[in-house]
Amino acid sequence: MPAKQMNFFPASFTAIWADIKGARNARHAVLYDRFLFSLICTLFLVGFVIVASASMPEGQRLTGNPFHFIQRHVFYLVGCTIILLVGLQVSMATWQRYSGILLVATITGLILVLLVGKTVNGSQRWLSAGPINIQVSELAKLMFFAYLASYIVRRHTEVTERAKGFYKPLVVFAIMAALILKQPDLGTVVVMFITTVGMLFLAGAKIRDFFALLTTGILLVVGLIIFEPYRMARVTSFLDPWQDPFGKGYQLTQSLMAFGRGDWFGQGLGNSVQKLEYLPEAHTDFIFAIWAEETGLFGVIVLLILQLSLALRALFIGSKSLQAEQCFSGYLAMGIGMWLSFQAAVNMGAACGMLPTKGLTMPLVSFGGSSLWVMTLAMVMLLRIDHERRLQSVQATTRGVS
Length: 402
Description:
Layout: H1 8-21, H2 34-63, H3 68-87, H4 92-97, H5 99-116, E1 118-120, E2 123-129, E3 132-135, H6 136-154, H7 156-161, H8 163-181, H9 186-202, H10 207-226, H11 229-239, H12 250-262, H13 287-323, H14 327-351, H15 369-401
Antiparallel strand pairs: 1-2, 2-3
Helix pairs in contact: 2-3, 2-13, 3-15, 5-6, 5-8, 6-8, 6-9, 6-14, 6-15, 8-9, 9-10, 9-14, 12-13, 13-14, 13-15, 14-15
């Protein structure tokens, strides 16, 4: 097949349509990751179902319309579809070429948040664009990982052999972290730091530099917690939430009650009690607790498997791309995989009392336009990365045959 006929949109979506009709045969090359695509769609479906269930009491209380958050979530999912269709047309070479410009634009957005941003629940994290609130820190994660992958490719020798090359991107990270901490949003900074450390380690950084960075980061995070009263209160309430169940430990104790009521197979979809104004943020940060209450241990295991499969698939795609010498794509896919796994682990850990509350969403599941759209863009990148690797393989085979 000539290369000019194999752009992503027709190849992948024609293949999907052919699968639906059952008309595929051996000569149709599968140029997209059907397993990854199925995982994304499944998590979107799970997210819609549990957001619909968890958000109705809150919608009724705030607006008098129990379907308020459901309608907004549908709007966000329509936006996800648009991002999917448009984003699949963008090559990874384009993302690499403009990663620096996009990073500068994102840093500018973080500065604007501090100047004219919208404040919700004491945090100034959003830029208002009409009816839409944009959380720039969500976009900052993905744009920084794209920049870091580009930097590793351009400066690989410096990163692996010289301390100067290793620490250069950390200056950019420090600037972004300082702006995000001003909002304040420690959870996002921790996710970015862990993913950054992981990407630099995979790039082949010296163990000495790696451990120096990791130790410094841990000490800084501990310091930020100790010297900020509200963060320290979260840690102490996490250690013993029942000491003050109607004060600092209220949210966690209500979440634990949801897990307890879930038992083996749950109370049934729509039958949660904790969502009835008992558990704050039931449709966002603590949506996992409502899922556990309504579907039980069985549902928890299913969602854990889905999130783990998604993260492992991203790492697998990254590994394959690195083997195919598509280095930017490989490092970015690896970064996305580490980001997804760590954020999902923190969200689940906070909900069940294993980690302090950090205000991080469940990837592709929690309510929230910024999180859903940025996560969808990350998934689009993964699909595109895998497509380009498969396309390269098909073209190489075609040239070999001819």
